C-alpha cells in the first residue's frame, strides 16, 4: 500500500490518535480530481478497481453529492479550481438529466437508462449548492424539475415504492430519507414549502420502520436483517437533517437514538463493524470505510445542533472513525489512482466494494474531516 498516512498509534488501551488532517484532506480532493479527469465527460468515475486496474464510468448519483463537498473544500483552502470542477459537474448533471426530471440509475455505461428515486435525490445536493454558489438559473430549473418528479413519484404514506434502482435491492428502502434530506434542501433553496412537506412525509413513514432500540428495518442494498453502516448512516442523517430544516425536534431525537446505538458498538481501534443486526450487534468482521466517516458526520452534526452534556462524546466517536479511515489512506502510493483514495472495506477483501476505491468514500471522508476541523480547530 506504500507509505500510509497517520498510522494509528495506541494510547490508553487502544485509543486511536489522529495525525495531521490537512494532508489527507488535500490528497482525497486531488484523488477526486483525478477521478473526474479519468472520464470522457465532467462526471466523476464511480470507483477505481484494483484488480482490473481501471476506472469505472462516471456515476451521476455520487457526482451529484460530491459537488457541495468540492465547493466547501475550495472555500476552506482557497483552491478555486475545485469550485470550477464542482460547477462543471453540476452543468454536466443538468445536461444528462432525463426529460421527466429524474436522474438515471447506475453508471453512464449502465445497460438501462431509467430514472431512479435515490440517484435523483442525491443530485439535488449538487444543484442546490451550484445554484447557491453561482446564481445560474439552469441549476434552479434542474433542481425544481427533479424535485417535482420526486414529489409526483411519492406514495400517499410518504414512502417511495416506484422507480427503485434495477441494480440494487428491490422494494421499499428506509435509506431514502437521504432523498428526503435533498428535497428539504431544495425546498429551502427554492422557497418551496411543499418540498419540505414531502420530505417530512417520507421521514414520518421511515420512523414507522424504526424499532424501539433505534434500528431501522428495510434499510439495506441486499440484506435487510443486517444493514451496512453505509445505509444506516444514510437513514439516520436523513432523519436528522430533515428535522433540522423543518424544525421538528422529534426527528432529531429519533436520529440521536440511532446514532447513540451505533456509537456504542464502535471498536477500540475506532472503526465500526461493516454491518449491524437488529440488536445492534456486529454482523461483519470487516469495516465499511464509507460508513465510518458517514457516521462521524452524523455525530458531528449533533454537536453542531447543540448536543447536551449527558449525551455520548460525539466528538470522540467521530475522531475514532476518522482516525481509522485515515490510517487506511495512502499519501505516497506510486499509483495516482490509489494515492489519496479511501477503499470500500478494511481489509480491502471485505464485502463492501471489494478491491475498489469508490468516489463516495473519499467524498464522505472529506466531509467528516472538514467538519471535525471546524468543530475542534484541529488542522
List keywords for this structure.
5% strand, globular, mainly alpha, Glycosyltransferase, disordered N terminus, two-stranded antiparallel sheet, 3-stranded antiparallel beta sheet, 9 strands, 52% helix, 379 residues
Describe the structure.
The chain has 379 residues and is mainly alpha-helical. It has a single domain, classed as Glycosyltransferase. Helix content is 52%, strand content 5%. Strands 4-3-9 form a 3-stranded antiparallel β-sheet. Helix 4 runs parallel beside helix 6 and helix 11 crosses helix 12. The N terminus is likely disordered. It comes from Salinisphaera orenii MK-B5. InterPro entries: 6-hairpin_glycosidase_sf (IPR008928). This is Squalene cyclase C-terminal domain-containing protein.
